[in-house]
Amino acid sequence: MKFQTKTEWSPGLFRDYYNNEHDACGIVAFINRSITQTRDTIDIAAESLRKMNHRAGFTNGEGDGVGIQTDIPTLLWQEKLTSVGISPEVVSHPSFTVGHFFLDEKSEIQTLLQIFEENGYETLYHSCNQTFTSALGPIAQAVEPEFLQVALLPITNHQSTTLFDLTNIISKKTNVTVVSLSQSTCVYKVMGTIDTLLSYYSDLQHPNFQSSVVVGHNRYSTNTSSSFSRVQPFSMLAHNGEINTIEQLRIEAKQIGANIKHGNSDSQDVNITLETLIHKYNYSLKEAMELLFPPVPAEYESDPEVNTIYNTIRSTFGPYCQGPAGVLTREGNEFVASVDALGLRPVWLLETNDYYVFSSEQGILSPELFIAEPHALSPGEKVGINLLKDRAQLLTHRELTHFVTTKLNEKLTMNLANKEANSADYVEHSPPSIHPFEYGAFGWQKEQIQLVEQMAEKGAEPIRSLGHDAPLACLDETRKNLSDFMKETVAVVTNPAIDRDRETEHFSISVILGKRPSISKNDSGIVFQLPSPILGDGFVGNTLKANRQQLTYEEILNLYQLENKLYTIQSTFSNLPLEETLSQYKYEAVEAVKNGAECIVITDDEAHKNNQYWIDPALITAIIHNGLVNAKLRRNCSIVLKTAAVRNLHDLMVMKGLGADAINPHFLFGTISELEAPEKIVKLYDVLNKGIEKVISTIGMHELRGYAKMFSSIGLQEDIASSLGIINFFGDQTVSGFKLLEADSKKRFEDYNANNAAMPKSFHVFPRIWKAIGETAQTGSYETYRQKLNQIEEERPTTVRHALSLVESRKPVDSSQVSLEIGTHSLPFIISSMSFGSQNEVAFRAYAEGANRLNMISLNGEGGEIQDMIGKYPNTRGQQIASGRFGVNANLLHSSNLIEIKIGQGAKPGEGGHLPASKVTQKIAETRNATLGSDLISPSNNHDIYSIEDLAQMISEIKAVNPKAKVAVKVPVVPNIGTIAVGIAKAGANFINISGFDGGTGAARVHAIQNVGLPVEIGVRAAHNALLESGLRNSVEIWADGGMKSVNDVVKMMILGANRIGFGTLSMIAIGCTTCRGCHLDTCHVGIATQIESEIEAMRHGLRKFTPRQLETAVTNLVQFFTAFKDELQVIVGSLGVKNAQELVGKTEFLKQTRFLDTLSLTNLLSTNKIEDKEYVLSNGESAKVLQSNDVGVYAKVDNEYRHAGSLLIHDLVVKKQTQGVASPVEISFEDQSIPGNGLGTYTVEDYSIFVQGGAQDGVAKTAFGGTIFISKAVGANGQFFGGSVGKCFAYGAQKGQFFIQGNADSRAGIRLSGADVVIGGRNHSSQSISQKTRLGAKANINGFAFEYMTGGRAVVLGDPGPWMCAGMTGGVIYVRNSSELGLTKEAYQNRIAKGASVSIVPVDETGKNDLNELLEKYISLLTQHNQHDEAEFVQSLLDDIEQNFLQIKPKKEQADPSVSTE
């Protein structure tokens, strides 16, 4: 069987990674304005897909896949039917149907034909001779399915099954993939490129193959082996992005009868859900899209016209399609284009005389064809097109919204009961005190109580430094709850984390309780909308109601009880065994809901009493939730959990993810409840809610209702993990987890009733070893440190590798004969990335110098390089590019041939950093190209990496500006890290840096340190095996860091698959760190994690003791420390019988499990299963068209295939300046209707100028360090000027230079602007209401999120700057129009300022007048030079009265508390 079938799979297998892949792509749609079928529509769409080959993946020269959805081609089918003796007029029959199918075997054809007949369809035509295998490459040929094409017509006087039901019947009865089965459209797709597609299908070569609409998709897969069936478009959808909430969407879709199958991609399941809503429930495509992609609450709550209906829409279905999503979808005579709520993927609307065009890139067309301004869809925007008989009717976002809300208002209803909830008379009494034995019986530790008290006192989550050094739950003998075995996951590369702190208005943690509004009839149960899933009872509940408008636990239960719709389950067992009891509870819950219950309450109030043994709330919640899901009753009720075992934010997220809709954590609030201090309750509630938002932001979600099981477990018994329905690593299948839990519950019962349930203290390694590390650094001897570590690891193992031992050889090699070399370096060690800012200058310099003396790698963190260090260590010093782009520019990239892109780090995956203003000294400000004394914020994600093809673009940009550079990508460990590693390799990376959860020199929230990410062992082995399976292992190195403490760790990680090992914390300890874990406070008494440089400064900071570092001593200690590690490594490698350490990489036969044999199974981790030997070459088929070194001058009609155009010239300019001290200025002009591709002017420098007539794509002037860019409009098809617009992230991180665009900018323009000047000249000629607060993006000139994190520079915006601007802005100034005629006034701007902003809108001062004169005079000059005289005159008129025509926006300069530092 050729067809590669997806099977039940788990990452815990460490193999068969083809079962898990992620997609990115380019998408396009051409809609003929006259709805005329033409060949030109096919050809122009095909050419557009060809122009976006750079958005596709390539392996061995083969594309990952491409497809098109078209009309059923009338002329072609008339010809086909005539050839088999059927009247061509049948094609015009309204029920004429065309079907395309992928089959495993030809023998399935007869089965299909029989199914058609049984369901009332006559097969008029069928053929499996429509393709040419020779058009495929070897990879595609290996998995090529049979292709069957049919034409069907309902049998006269027979009851025919609907095509939707027929599709489901085929799906359930066979292994056949229904590519398309429709009376209006058909889909053709293939593994390959657009040229492969056109050559593969005979239909597409026929001149009569014509269509009025074409929707196309060019695929980038994270695997090198895939299948035809996963290529898009699907039956009605082409999707660019990733649905982060896919787990919850699948649950919800199954509840409404969608045929969701295992192994589908996220896009497939969105497509199936759309089909279900449209064909089972009779929604239009526009209505179905609004149900699946509803607006965020902030976009409608202040609009009384639509507030009620959107609450109903979101309660009926919900925000289950969160994540990056550019969507083009067509069904019948409807078409909808959509962008996700945060605008993370690009979709452009282009208009020509003949077509409406939607595309990932505007540069697929020449501007000379435009008849309207190119429009990048704004965050959350949808545009519809009605395909009428003789024309295409465009519906704007506002028109579509009005249409949909009107229609859905007629179909849906909700019985919202919030106002009916009234608490019974409440008598205030002191909250009950909780005794230590009660805490102990519910699994609390002393440290957890302390953390709760800190949060309630300070109103913030505690921050700590130096990572996690406590044992994994599965290795710890102290009492553990199930949630302790679980680690939360985050978004990595294929989708982004998002920024809760700066984009806060998009976040919602509201939940729905009760029976949800019916999707099929005008009906609803009792529904509550809560602002948070956290409930309180008694004094806590009433405090939260009074201060935060949260309903109380009692109010909710009372109303359901009054309506006889409440069912309560005690979370205990007694006479029956635990597993049997849980089965009984599941049955009871299902029966209760069938009989009308709308609220299931699970409570452990009776636990540990009256022979009632406690059941872990995670287990009982999951089993009842899963039972209701399987019974398809989950929409009919909610689950409310009351438990004493929720101890922290992590426990809350686990309970929510496993199925609890609302949680009453009564011990958590009871810990701090005092009648005299209700503010503590409110503070704790607020901190937890903010924490929930932070958690969902790291997985790329902005609404809690999409959250489901975004965690995996380590070392749970497989029967328990299976009952929970979660991914599990190293689970033992031979031991009954239920029996172990039973025994544990009975012991808790005994301890509780004997009043002696002790709370254990947390165990930490570093306090026990830091002195020994220091001794090794000072003496160069490993002996004492080895003995100390061996003792600790024997007594209190903390990591998975402590359960493994080395298998020594009977033929050892003398250590003097052992080579540790790798590449050009002598040692396989890395000093992990640490920034200047988090580290003192002496420490920062010592890492670089020490590594250089040893000829090993040291990595700079995100903070730029001290000026005299730039270029000093070209072969051993790596430079980092991270989300803040501090100090990143062309000079930095040329200082080293090793560049690391940080996607995330182990200590705080999915989160950014914050260097408070108090730490930003003059030298740090210079190094980071920032302003002295300003807060410096690193976003939680790189705003130019929202997908795998974005990462490929960024790597391509780096290598274009420094052709010698090798690129590393640093990522945290998540369950699907193997698949991600393959995607990173395909994107062109040379090194993959796997960062385990327990590492981290940086400061982070305690929650992130303890509960987020997975151990490095999992990441390294998964990446190694996945790369082997994909044939890409030899194209990349794997690096590992995260909690490395010994040479034994080094050897074990190499055996699991790592080529090099990173050390961060140990490097700090080697130069004197005492691990006091207060690195973020700027009070480091040994002068490492502080900017204090002298004892006098230390005294001013209140430090009683301060011992500054000495550079040479620090360097010597590092050299001695790593030399000791080198000597020990040679001895151990020799003992294994190996002469070269790299020979150990991936060879798990050198490891064996010797501990925890009865509780952990490391078989899969150590498996040496034979993996098919194959070696793939990553093709340059997706590379950019480039301008060579001598290509200075003028170019005409440059299109989007010229990505990062001219970057090689920047390279030449920088090199000449570095070597010769001077270079001639470079000037490039792209004229005559040009739209060059992504990355134009990235890393520009002084004496470099680009002029464009037409437009540009994403990333213009990104990380610029000088130069000038001007982008003007071009003459369109009707003689008017259009365009001059740019894509996302214009001037992201730009530090110097001047950049002018005459048109509009897509979202996140000016993000992290830190010194450069920008003018955005796009403007509207019609106004929006001054008081309007919602849906502003679709008509704005910047689509949203402009000038986030801005730390310096000047910006002028001549039009509407769009919503959610200036979040996190701490420096610089923005000048905006003041025009009541255009609806741009101070009030209007206040409606556009983000909640996460702290800025003032004030009249223009004298400095402002000078700025505006300078910048706009330059802009006028450029406009005039490029024949934009009318616009130049208009801008000149604005300068006549600057005070009247402009306002300025400045940050308020509020400095943050240093304790919030996460650097």
Please characterize this protein's 3D structure:
With 1463 residues, the protein is of the alpha/beta class. Among the domains are: 237-342 and 380-412, no CATH class; 446-459 and 479-753, TIM Barrel (Alpha-Beta Barrel), CATH 3.20.20.70; 809-1141, TIM Barrel (Alpha-Beta Barrel), CATH 3.20.20.70; 1254-1453. It contains 42 helices and 55 strands. The strands form 13 sheets. Strands 45, 46, 47, 48, 49, 50, 51, 52, 53, 54 and 55 form an eleven-stranded mixed β-sheet that branches. An eight-stranded parallel β-barrel has the order 33-34-35-36-39-40-42-43, surrounded by five helices. A hairpin with a 5-residue loop joins strand 48 and strand 49. Helix 24 (766-779) packs across helix 36 and helix 30 (977-986) crosses helix 32 (1016-1029). The longest helix is centred in the last third of the chain and has 25 residues, at 1111-1135. It is globular, with a radius of gyration of 31 Å. The model is unreliable at 1-6 (pLDDT under 50). Its cofactor is FMN; [3Fe-4S] cluster. It comes from Gottfriedia luciferensis. Residues 25-388 form the Glutamine amidotransferase type-2 domain. Belongs to the glutamate synthase family. Keywords: 3Fe-4S, Amino-acid biosynthesis, Flavoprotein, FMN, Glutamate biosynthesis, Glutamine amidotransferase, Iron, Iron-sulfur, Metal-binding, Oxidoreductase.
Itemize the secondary structure elements and their pairings:
Elements: E1 23-32, H1 39-51, E2 58-59, E3 62-63, E4 66-71, H2 74-83, E5 97-103, H3 108-118, E6 121-127, H4 138-142, E7 146-154, H5 163-173, E8 177-182, E9 185-190, H6 194-200, H7 202-205, E10 213-221, E11 237-241, H8 246-255, H9 266-279, H10 285-292, H11 307-316, E12 325-331, E13 334-339, E14 348-351, E15 355-359, E16 375-376, E17 382-387, E18 392-395, H12 397-411, E19 415-416, H13 436-441, H14 446-458, E20 463-464, E21 486-488, E22 511-514, E23 526-530, H15 538-548, H16 553-562, E24 566-570, E25 572-573, H17 578-594, E26 599-603, E27 613-614, H18 617-630, E28 638-642, H19 649-658, E29 662-664, H20 666-670, H21 678-698, E30 711-714, H22 718-724, E31 727-729, H23 737-753, H24 766-779, H25 783-795, E32 804-806, E33 829-834, H26 841-854, E34 857-860, E35 877-881, H27 890-894, E36 898-902, E37 913-915, H28 922-927, E38 936-938, H29 948-961, E39 966-972, H30 977-986, E40 991-995, E41 1004-1005, H31 1006-1011, H32 1016-1029, E42 1037-1041, H33 1047-1056, E43 1060-1063, H34 1065-1070, H35 1095-1100, H36 1111-1135, E44 1151-1153, ...
Parallel strand pairs: 19-23, 24-26, 26-28, 28-29, 30-31, 33-34, 33-43, 34-35, 35-36, 36-39, 39-40, 40-42, 42-43, 45-46, 46-47, 47-48, 48-50, 50-51, 51-52, 52-53
Antiparallel strand pairs: 1-10, 1-15, 2-3, 4-9, 4-10, 5-7, 5-8, 6-7, 11-12, 12-13, 13-17, 14-15, 14-16, 17-18, 20-41, 21-30, 22-23, 25-27, 32-44, 37-38, 48-49, 53-55, 54-55
Helix pairs in contact: 8-9, 9-10, 14-21, 15-21, 17-18, 24-25, 24-36, 26-36, 30-32, 33-36, 40-41
